[in-house]
Model the fold of this input.
Amino acid sequence: MNYRDLFVKELQRIHDANTYKYETPFTSPQDGVVIVKGKKVVMMASNNYLGMSNHPVVKKAAIEGIKEFGYGMASVRFLCGTQAIHLELEKKIAKFVGTEDAILFSSAFAANNAFFPSLFNERLGYENYHDVIYTDGLNHASIIDGMRLCKSETTDKKIYKNNDIAQLEQMLDADKNADYRFRIIATDGVFSMEGSYAHIAELVDIAKKYNAILFVDDCHAIGVVGKSGRGTPDKFNVLGKVDVLSGTLGKAIGGALGGYIAGEKKMVEYLRQKSRPYTFSNSLPPSIVMASIAAFDLLTKDKSIVKRLHDNTAYFRKEIVSLGFTIIGGDHPIVPVMLGEASVAQEMSKALLKAGVYVKGLWFPVVPKGEARLRVQISASLTKKNIDHALNAFEAVGKKLKVIST
Done:
């Protein structure tokens, strides 16, 4: 059998297995309520945590961005793709997350793919060198792919169990006399399938103890976590103490696209010279830059937005448990409703959409076998009426499918 036949056979296998579920399109702005096939449904599957995807201030800023600065940059940053607003946004991000500087990328995925190989694949004056990355077992695919871009012959990659600080410290202690050039501990700030937090304060202490760099992907925390929405360092009272933070503009901060790396100024300057996704990708368009600036300004000035998100989250978490559903505990707006079997998650997601709630199921290989779930995501844009409608739908569908008792 030749390669083409093998490829066609594999395509047929995937088609027959129906492993890919097509998206559910809607015909309205991303908001607390969206329109699917002409029907209003409560949105509970979106990363639009602060409701800024359709916020009038953010939309106005995006329009002004096009009017004043044009539609696109038609260039990469180091040629002619840098406007004053790009630098303004980078400074605003750095100030918000408590670092010296920040650098913009087309996405957080690109940012993570940029950071690791840029640092680890360069000799930097070392002819014979070896580095090591200690990575949490539940880290996001973008961290994993960024690590894969590092040369295996010069970079060791060691996985510790999710949030197992004791195992991580054992690894670090075992390697304390190893002649590593760089040691990096890499973790998500929030693990997106669980809505759980990394132990950031403990990781800060361990990194300092073993002379390691702490890298935290805070994509599901920026704008969301902490009293002021400054992320996991804010929540765990270590703002300004994490060495490297990556984050996104495509979730809470406006919800379009764009990512960043924030940290020491020298490190950021190094990335501007060495990171290929930065050097060879078009600059973020002015509309997104201006909208992101407006979103950060809103977040800084109006503390009620984050509070509303936290209040909505606490209310939904309390009430969904009282209905008899099993969730992964915590206080993050990601609320995994545990169902066990993939077929149940698929059926319940479809039934909830018919009942006016847009929520998606997750199953193997995205999550372990037997741990299928609905990943509910709460937003500040939801009213109590919206949440109550969703809870009523969960109760009715849950009883019908015998997920909860009648």
In short: The mean pLDDT is 95. Residues 340 and 371 are 5 Å apart (CA to CA).
